[in-house]
Amino acid sequence: MSDDHRVRFYGYVDRPYEASRMLLREHAQEVLRRATKTAGERARSLAARLSVEAGGVGVGVDVTLEVHRRPEEPGIAGLPPITHLDLSWKAAEAEGLFPSMSAQLTLSPTTFAETRVEFEGVYTPPLAVVGRAFDAAVGHRIAEAAVHRFVNDVIEEIRREVPKAG
Questions:
Q1: pTM
Q2: Domains defined for the chain, CATH in brackets
């Protein structure tokens, strides 16, 4: 039985695909790092912060974020183009105590002025049997909430950086 768990979330940003794509192609590390930090933590150079609310208790961990570009899929045969970024993160400290994530962030146009932002990833709970039990009880909800927040923060970063079409 695999200990890996899939998590997926998507949203839409009211910005043109081409400009959104260029932002992430040229500045992915910075945009994604900002998307995982609060304003007070932006001064840290190598770590990002993911945090969620779980059962009224704030849960957060500094993470090391890696971003790798993949070849883009051109729009062919009526299908839209797709931009892919491979992401991975793990706890910056005490790595064995926190889940690790391997994921793909994709952008695709929905209209001339709107872009779909999709996250699909696999995370591995820590701590063997204890980690699997925690994941079954609440951990998977924490992972889903963290991904939800991350995608929404990426969307907000795109909104800040890319002007509206018009």
A1: 0.77
A2: 5-161 (3.30.530.20)
